[in-house]
Amino acid sequence: KAGVTQTPRYLIKTRGQQVTLSCSPISGHRSVSWYQQTPGQGLQFLFEYFSETQRNKGNFPGRFSGRQFSNSRSEMNVSTLELGDSALYLCASSLLGDPQETQYFGPGTRLLVL
Amino acid sequence: AQTVTQSQPEMSVQEAETVTLSCTYDTSESDYYLFWYKQPPSRQMILVIRQEAYKQQNATENRFSVNFQKAAKSFSLKISDSQLGDAAMYFCAYRSALYAGGTSYGKLTFGQGTILTVHP
Description:
The structure holds 2 protein chains of 2 kinds. Helix content of chain A is about 0%, strand content about 55%. In chain A, about 40% of the residues are buried. Chain A starts with a strand and ends with a strand. Chain A is built from no helices and 11 strands. By secondary structure, chain A is mainly β. In chain A, the strands form 2 sheets. In chain A, strands 2, 4, 5, 6, 9, 10 and 11 form a 7-stranded mixed sheet that branches. A 4-stranded antiparallel sheet of chain A has the order 1-3-8-7, with no helix packed on it. In chain A, a hairpin with a 3-residue loop joins β4 (about 30-40) and β5 (about 40-50). By secondary structure, chain B is mainly beta. Chain B is about 0% helix and about 50% strand. Chain B has no helices and 12 strands. In chain B, β8 (about 65-70) and β9 form a beta hairpin. Chain B starts with a strand and ends with a strand. The interface of A and B includes residues 42, 92, 94 and 97 of A.
């Protein structure tokens, strides 16, 4: 079974631009979570989607948004990019998003904001 | 809010030796899950081992085992017979088992990580 895939793997943007990152979960998985990883703040939870609905959200400004499609693929969008948004963005999928389930992570998208 | 602390930014071990990575957490909940994830230089996060808080028995997965002390809120990872491929960043993570308000959906709370170096 194919793992979680994320595209693109690398992105370079300039301040003020917006960016869209994509995540395809493992086949059959309906829950997708997003995390931001930076050297200073570590790994922080962004949001979780299940059946096209956002069920949980971390403490990030409204510039960070996401959505999920009927095939469970998810996208996250960051508008008006700031230098501090430079990070590795990871998505993870699980079957239903229940607490006892293991989350399987993708390879991440490295975003550099200049 | 739950917090996870890994007090060892870096650790090193000789190949074939044993190393223990420390993790403490703070929570007022009684039911939760704890995880150790490994992130090698390739950046793909991989689950190493998981522990259910309601289970007293410590989890083991081949060369990896944990020492779960619920009262002390401690969750250490022991790697036996260390191999060069074990070199990575290791993250301890907490997951609430509660559904109240949807705050547990998807959310893993991570520690800051421990970089493990394995010397040949």
